[in-house]
Specification:
It contains 15 helices and 22 strands. The protein is of the alpha+beta class. The longest helix has about 50 residues, at about 25-75.
Length: about 650
């Protein structure tokens, strides 16, 4: 045993000498291995980053190529492709946007129409234009995974995650679809039809034509393409460098998730829509739990759960079972890639100004609105500063609060007392707390306000502006609309009315000038200075004669001003008749930073505040601001009242 031990020791000694002479020892190997592990640990993030950078570049390049294809299509046909073609087929109802059989009514979409322009003429040739996309004849095209329509950064766009269209849970899937990551811009308007109603104006809504006799259906928003409707460059007021054409969307995270499908011409599939300021899906990668309204989301909630959708950052509402609204989404960090009509691809941050996001998706935005410093405004994530109070040296008060007076046109004004109140108190009975970016906050009105007792009438507007843009004219009971509120007037025109009224010789001689009320002043007047929640009901009470209309069903007809009783400040129609313009730029988060004393709203913006009740959400259960409108647009249910300032 001793000899064996000595032999073993000698062997190890000889082995160590041999190793030292011919190679590396055990210690050196350990050190090298540790260094190698350290190197890999340090290099791995760079490697992964490099791979993601390559994937990201592919996403951008493919979006750019689609922009080239759009321009080629326009050169060939003198218009851009429609978002999709829908046909009713055997269905009698022409409200195709409410039909859940999207596999049978959806035909060619913009992506299929672009196939010859992206190097896929063979695939275009096999599409049977006489059949819907869900027909057996079109199986090959809808199940083809196209690199040209795929962003490699999206890990859900893969062969084992095709969409399985399944109308009923107890039936097998009808058809399957390959995924896609690009969508055409149908617009950021509200998903509600066109103008809304007197109780819920849609500042900007979809335009729907559903003609059963002619079997014609069209569905168009404010974007560059509609359903069964195409637009040309000549139709766009917005400049090509500031108008969104296409944007990224994410592939659905489960086979039942109908979002991100390149060949399916549906909202959420290959179309973005209603993702602006008016609704609750505004901005890229919106994380509100009820943001996307898409077909089948209720089943998604049942099968994988709301928490899984939240963790995947792909929320959708469980109780709206149709394709109404869907925003741009991506798996890039903090934003999405967007293609503009001039071919430029820009990365847009999730925190982009929601007003800017809204108007850059609209073909109706005047070119001059976005022509100045667009790039810097797009990258500026800080909220605008507060507007400054226009300091006016006022004359000593000659009229006590609660009193009224008239100007040279016979317009009546009531002097409201100075005071303070809590702004943004939710209505009783709405079943919801206010969004966290819209908190209840204390506001001081430091000086008395000479508030218009009535909404500006058609007669008064015409006397100053020499025209009457109003929609509501002679009704069945009256032969004059002189005392009806003026409406269908945009913010710019309402502001010009104030200026022209101020310039009348009689008004200048009396030291009076006019402006629109701030939102804080308007709500103060509506609440009569109180900090109490309003008892709101969705349905009108039987025999209710108060004229209150905002958010109530059924909506009331527009009436002459003063047809109903005034509030405690002796102001008429604060919760009824037309909704009203305020002077403020709209920023949903402004309440969270509003100054306490006499807030004026943000110093800049893209849309203006419209009010019709004591709470800006008009009893809504979610983050929806239907009436909010760009200052160059009008609505037949939106008018205004004015504030009179007496100056030296």
């Amino acid at each position: 045993m001793k000899m064996e031990s000595q032999y073993s020791a000698g062997s190890r000694w000889n082995h160590d000498r041999l190793t030292a002479r011919n190679g590396l020892g055990r210690i050196e190997l350990i050190i090298i291995s540790a260094l190698l592990v350290l190197f890999l640990a340090l290099a791995l993030p760079a490697i992964l980053s490099s791979r993601e950078s390559a994937r990201y570049s592919a996403c951008v390049n493919r979006l750019h190529d689609l922009g080239v294809a759009l321009r080629q299509y326009h050169d060939n046909f003198q218009s851009l492709p429609p978002a999709a073609n829908w046909h009713p087929g055997r269905y009698r109802s022409m409200m195709l946007n409410q039909n859940r059989r999207v596999d049978l009514l959806t035909y060619q979409n913009w992506a299929i129409l672009l196939l010859p322009h992206i190097g896929q003429p063979g695939l275009a040739d096999i599409y049977d234009i006489s059949q819907p996309i869900g027909a057996d004849e079109n199986t090959q095209i809808r199940t083809t995974m196209l690199d040209e329509m795929r962003c490699p950064s999206d890990s859900y766009n893969r062969l084992d995650n095709y969409h399985l269209f399944q109308l009923f849970p107890d039936e097998p899937p009808q058809v399957e679809f390959a995924r896609g990551n690009y969508a055409i811009n149908l617009g950021t308007q509200c998903h509600r039809p066109d103008i809304g109603t007197s109780s819920r104006p849609a500042g900007e809504g979809v335009q729907i034509i559903a003609d059963a006799d002619r079997r014609v259906f069209q569905y168009a928003g404010s974007g560059i393409a509609g359903i069964n409707r195409s637009f040309s460059y000549d139709d766009f007021k917005n400049g090509q460098s500031t108008l969104v054409a296409l944007e990224e969307v994410r592939a659905g995270i489960h086979p039942l998730d109908a979002r991100g499908i390149w060949s399916l011409g549906q909202i959420g599939g290959s179309i973005t829509s209603a993702h602006g300021i008016s609704g609750d899906d505004g901005g890229p990668n919106n994380q509100w739990a009820r943001s996307d309204d898409v077909l089948g989301c209720g089943r998604l909630h049942t099968v994988i759960g709301a928490e899984a959708l939240k963790e995947a950052r792909m929320p959708c509402v469980h109780y709206v079972d149709r394709n109404d609204q869907a925003t741009a989404r991506s798996m890039h960090e903090q934003g999405v890639n967007v293609l503009f009509l001039d071919g430029a691809v820009r990365f847009v941050h999730d925190q982009v100004d929601r007003g800017l996001w809204h108007v850059m998706h609209s073909r109706e935005t005047p070119a001059e609105i976005l022509s100045d410093q667009f790039e810097s405004r797009l990258s500026d994530l800080e909220p605008p500063p507060d507007a400054k109070v226009d300091q006016v040296e006022k004359l000593p008060e000659t009229i006590s609060p609660g009193k009224s007076f008239k100007n040279s046109l016979g317009m009546s004004f009531v002097v409201l007392p100075a005071g303070e109140y809590k702004m943004g108190i939710p209505d009783v009975g709405n079943g919801s707390v206010p969004p966290e970016e819209c908190p209840v906050h204390l506001v001081q009105i430091p000086e008395p306000i000479n508030m218009g007792q009535y909404e500006v009438t058609q007669q008064q507007y015409e006397a100053v502006m020499a025209n009457n843009p109003s929609f509501h004219e002679i009704n069945q009971l009256r032969n004059s609309v002189d005392h009806f509120p003026v409406e269908q007037v945009n913010w710019n025109e309402a502001s010009e009315f104030c200026q022209r009224l101020s310039e009348l010789p009689e008004e200048q001689a009396s030291g009076r000038r006019y402006r629109l009320p701030t939102e804080a002043e308007w709500e103060y007047a509506c609440r009569t200075g109180k900090s109490e929640a309003y008892d709101w009901l969705a349905a009108r009470k039987t025999h209710q004669q108060t004229g209150e209309n905002a958010g109530l069903e059924p909506p009331l007809e527009i009436q002459p001003v003063g047809s109903y009783s005034p509030n405690e400040f002796q102001l008429y129609d604060m919760r009824g008749n037309v909704f009203e313009w305020c002077s403020d730029w709209f920023d949903r988060s402004y309440y969270s930073r509003s100054p306490k004393k006499n807030p004026q709203g943000p110093a800049s913006g893209f849309l203006k505040v419209v009010r019709g009740s004591d709470w800006i959400f008009v009893g809504e259960l979610c983050r929806i601001n239907y009436p909010i409108l760009a200052p160059w647009k009008s609505n037949r249910f939106i008018g205004f009242r004015v504030v009179c300032e007496v100056v030296p």
